[in-house]
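Supplementary Note 2. Why include the ligand at all?

Several targets in our set were suspected to adopt different conformations when bound, so apo predictions alone were not considered sufficient. For every target with a known small-molecule partner we therefore ran a joint prediction. The input for retinal is given below.
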Amino acid sequence: SPHRLGNATFENYVGLESGYTEMAYQMSAHVLTVGYAIMLAALIYFILTIRQVRPRYRMSSILSVVVMVSAFLLLLIQQLNWTSALQFDPATARYRLAPEGVEGIVTAGDLFNNGYRYLNWLIDVPMLLFQILFVVTLSRSSFASVRNQFWFSGVAMIITGYVGQFYEVTRPGLFFLWGSISTVFFIHILIVMRRVIKEGVENAPDSAKGMLGAIWPLFLISWMLYPGAYLMPYLYSFSLEPALSESAVVARHLTYTVADVTSKVIYGVLLAAAATRMSKAEGYDWEVQTA
Ligand code: RET
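The joint prediction is reproduced in token form.
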């Protein structure tokens, strides 16, 4: 029966019904592992490069460090959740939620859920949005107003999406309703961010304009991957029934990891690179500031 797992996400329904092949299970585990390993590596990078920018820009690197620590922990937990929710079943050569058979549904432990991600975004999304405000110079917009808009819409986007993801299998109507409400806040964030980057490029020295300008397409594409991951069971079925397919599950893990690396790590590297060029244009040369 299709609703035995209640509000569980589609990864669990696949684990209960067809189970995962070795390839799909391991690719998911590996993609999740690469995700947290990159966060730890990037954490070291942001710490070691902080002196390349003037003190006034260092808050950007500090916020990258905060984001790396919280993302590292979350992605580690997410990976452990994946490997502990499923168990290998030699009878079928599949990783299953309930290897003893679906009758009583005796699962190995917690079901799998992406909810840790959403709650991690509650920290990371406001931090990533504030981060750029410490690098750009705003001329027309006010810092406090932009900060409040980012904070409000960031949090509202995540909470509404968090509620919606519980309904992805059982109540598609509610899933799409909450997803649409979340998208309204997302569009607001995009509008404000576009303005921030435009003003930032206008006020930046020539040597930093290209680097800052590149942040807009990176931001747009990487942030759009998250709603793509949310919709994955429906992008695969292309209908109002979620696709209970392991390919869609692997695609969701992969999308999340690519999104995490681009929206957090590459974004932070670009901001730090822009700040390095701005520092240089302002007469700060970190190579001669040793001692
Ligand atoms: C949700 C729900 C469906 C609709 C939309 C969403 C947008 C999520 C975004 C998340 C960004 C997260 C980041 C995390 C970095 O740590 C909530 C999936 C629009 C844009 C950047």
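DSSP finds ten helices and two strands in the chain. The mean pLDDT is 93. Comparable summaries for the other entries are listed in the accompanying table.
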